[in-house]
Amino acid sequence: MTEDRRPTLTTVAQRAQVSRQTVSNVLNTPEIVRPETRERVLRVIAELDYRPNVAARQLRTRRSSVLGLCVPPAADGISGQVLDRFLHALTEEAQRGGLRIMLFTAPDDEAEIREYENLRATTGVDGFVLANTHPRDPRTAWLAAHGVPFVSFGRPWDRGASSHPWVDIDGREGTRAATRHLLDAGHRRIAFLGWPEGSGVGDDRLAGFLAALDAAGLGPGGVVERCEDGVPEGEAAARRALVRDDVTALVCVSDSVALGAMTAVREADLADPARIVAISGFDDTPVAAAVGLTSVAQPVEDVAARAVALVRAQIHGDPVDTDRQVLIEPRLVVRATSPARH
Amino acid sequence: MTEDRRPTLTTVAQRAQVSRQTVSNVLNTPEIVRPETRERVLRVIAELDYRPNVAARQLRTRRSSVLGLCVPPAADGISGQVLDRFLHALTEEAQRGGLRIMLFTAPDDEAEIREYENLRATTGVDGFVLANTHPRDPRTAWLAAHGVPFVSFGRPWDRGASSHPWVDIDGREGTRAATRHLLDAGHRRIAFLGWPEGSGVGDDRLAGFLAALDAAGLGPGGVVERCEDGVPEGEAAARRALVRDDVTALVCVSDSVALGAMTAVREADLADPARIVAISGFDDTPVAAAVGLTSVAQPVEDVAARAVALVRAQIHGDPVDTDRQVLIEPRLVVRATSPARH
DNA sequence: GTCGACGACTTGAACGATCTAATCCAGGAC
DNA sequence: GTCCTGGATTAGATCGTTCAAGTCGTCGAC
If you ran DSSP here, which 8-state letter would residue A195 be given? Predict the structure, then answer.
């Protein structure tokens, strides 16, 4: 029977001897309220443990402070972990800024676009974060055309694509750093284990490898073996690369590939104890840390922070003080698989 | 300048020559509307592409159709992938039932409880899904005490804990199936690589192993080696177990441990080509599929479905037709690491 | 002394839905 | 004919907030 509801603006107003609006002002535009009354109202708010009802606020202001995020239909292997970490960082960052993340799913791009419409119309979602852009992506174009605030983790890979706000990690710089690190460790003949040509991310990472070799005067070109992402695929590719006796280091496009390479290298090392092949991976997944794999860490926290800032700016219509396209430098984490040569 | 807003109930009502309430009825209680008018209203709704505003609905009904989910602060290794898949399944299942998942984070249990309060008071979240229960968890007690609808993925491990709704996977049955499978394959001396005593999940999985041995007349007891979760830890534990020459199979408490064990086994196999040691893992992570590791798959889709049903029942105050505690059978996925002996 | 400007606060309306109670009308029962 | 019943529909109030347009003094300028 104690059906007592939460206090409302009116409850607070009565108790503090002011009007609803003044209480509202204390919360939204405190500077226009006389300090004395402000204090009094704040005291009552604390006393009653008043919290504004966001549904009512949203109804009036047409702002939900909610961002939509589509979770991909199938966890795509080990690299899903990066997305996992990003999800957490994004939630944290959004929360810090008074935003919430709402999840949804869609089987394909068209369905996802329909969900955008739906979420805008019903829930009043303020904006979206895309976490898995791919070449020829119709979603970014739709969002841009409809004036929906959004940002993508991942740059558009089509040339001449519309320039929407995005944040991405500089994969090229990552492999360049990894390659440079191996060069500094004394390696001269380094192979790259990459993905088949055509994936934006993969090509970008390969470019960094080639650039580093070139800068060291070991280019142009280099030993490149390609395979699909995966542990056994990586193992096979590594075997192909290690056929060349002079190869002493492998720069891998992902931790999965690197993991497979480690198996192949272990065998090669057993066969020829004098030959110690160094390896670097990419993504710095927990597995990499566990097995002591040198890897390129993606600072997803930074990505999340910039992403939130970019959508927020669009939502509030703020002038963008920074670039709408942000490329973030990854960080090389050196571990046991890439010791210095003596 | 084309600031035309979305159609509302009133827009539809005018166009269909009925009252607001009738339109509302068509959507919420169609059976009380005369079929003729219902048709007419539905036609107009389709024409105008009307969608109800959930903020307004929530304000009036005090129902948000939103579930809160706390994403854990740190991705805890490889097992985070199960949670990742669960997250997706949950989103899909919730969406299917007209519910949405809203994310939030909290550094510790107390902060999380504060967020429960906050989300209930401000956003009007209808219920919560807990995905990482642990022994002596204050959160479930708080939620139960405050009459907040919720369900946990993971049973309460404290004895005599309050019986709240939960869904979990029967780990005991999982390792039992894995052990039986190895027994059927002809193994007689099987070791278990488990976590240190005291973790509910780990003890449960060990119990299944012992039960299977017992049932086969090979008990009581068995070879058990314990280690923290992790690839190198698993490798070390496997070495300890393989010191006994008669051990021909390893049942592992997790895929991480199994992954480490695979390395140890590969060495042992090289040393003694006649000895082929079988391995099974737990969780059926993508890595397991990649390296051909026999593993116990957690049907997270089923878990998600039951979880959503359980919260939904609480929210609507429906009588619970099924048990409020659900234990789901895992599924053994046989791969290359556990061939039949000949 | 009058006027306007300004600061501090208040009042009614609006956002878009649902709840409650009322209305209208047809069809029987008596 | 009157009354009741029940199905279909409607009108008004309401949820809790913010917006827009006030009111009410006080202060300074002329």
Answer: P
Place of tokens 């039986």: B180
| Chain A residues in contact with B85 (beta carbon < 8 A) | 75
> Any CB–CB contact under 8 A between A189 and chain B?
no
- Which whole-number Å values give the CA distances from A314 to A121, A137, A300, A309, B2, in the listed order? 18, 21, 21, 9, 20
Task: Please give the Cα distance from B283 to B51 (Å, whole number).
Answer: 41
Convert the pLDDT of each residue in A242-279 to its tens digit: 999 999 999 999 998 998 999 899 888 888 888 889 99
Within a domain: residue B151? Answer: yes
Q: Please tell me whether residues B266 and B198 are part of one structural domain.
A: yes
Q: Is the CB of A10 under 7 A from strand C?
A: no
The amino acid sitting at B111 is: A
Q: Which residues of B88-101 are buried (b: 16+ CB within 10 A; e: fewer)?
A: bbbbbbbbeeebbb
Residues 6+ apart with CB under 8 A from A145: none
| A134, A218: one domain | no
CATH number at residue A29: 1.10.260.40
Q: What is the pTM of this model?
A: 0.90
A210 and A180, same structural domain?
Answer: yes
Residues A21 and A9 in one domain: yes
Q: Are residues A305 and A164 in the same domain?
A: yes
Question: Which residues of chain A are within 8 Å of residue B256 when distances are taken between CB atoms?
Answer: 290
Cα–Cα distance between A293 and A259 in angstroms, integer?
8
The long-range contacts involving B265-269, CB below 8 angstroms and separated by at least 24 positions, are B265/B238, B268/B242
CB B19 within 8 A of CB B41: no
Asked, for residue B128, whether it belongs to a domain, the answer is yes
Summarize pLDDT for B152-161 with one digit per residue, the tens.
999 888 776 6
Indicate the number of domains in chain A: 3
CATH of the domain at B291: 3.40.50.2300
A97 near B CB under 8 A: no
Strands A249-252 and B100-104: unpaired
- Tell me, yes or no, whether A176 and A164 share the same domain: no
B105 touches strand C (CB under 7 A): no
How do residues A30-84 score in pLDDT, each as one tens digit?
Answer: 999 999 999 999 999 999 999 999 999 999 999 999 999 999 876 554 456 788 8
Q: Which of A78-82, B168-172, B260-264, B315-319 has the lowest mean pLDDT?
A: A78-82
Q: Residue B176 above 50 pLDDT?
A: yes
The span from the CA of A225 to the CA of B228, in Å, is: 36
Encode B159-183 in three state secondary structure. Answer: CCCCCCCEEEECHHHHHHHHHHHHH
Quick check: bond before B220 cis, omega within 30? Answer: yes
What type of residue is B41?
V
Minimal-distance CA residue of chain A relative to B58: A55
| Other Cβ atoms within 10 Å of B147 Cβ, number | 7
Q: In which domain, by residue range, is B284 found?
A: 171-298
Within a domain: residue B292?
A: yes
Q: Are B119 and B69 in contact, with CB atoms under 8 Å apart?
A: no
Are residues A199 and A131 part of one domain? Answer: no
Q: B126 in a domain, yes or no?
A: yes
Q: Across chain A, what does the average pLDDT equal?
A: 91
Question: What is the side-by-side order of every strand in the sheet holding B150-153?
Answer: A325-328, A166-169, A150-153, A127-130, A66-70, A100-104, B100-104, B66-70, B127-130, B150-153, B166-169, B325-328
Min Cα distance A135 → chain B (Å) is 23
Same domain for A21 and A111? Answer: no
pLDDT at B342: 65
Give the pairing of strands B223-226 and A278-283.
unpaired
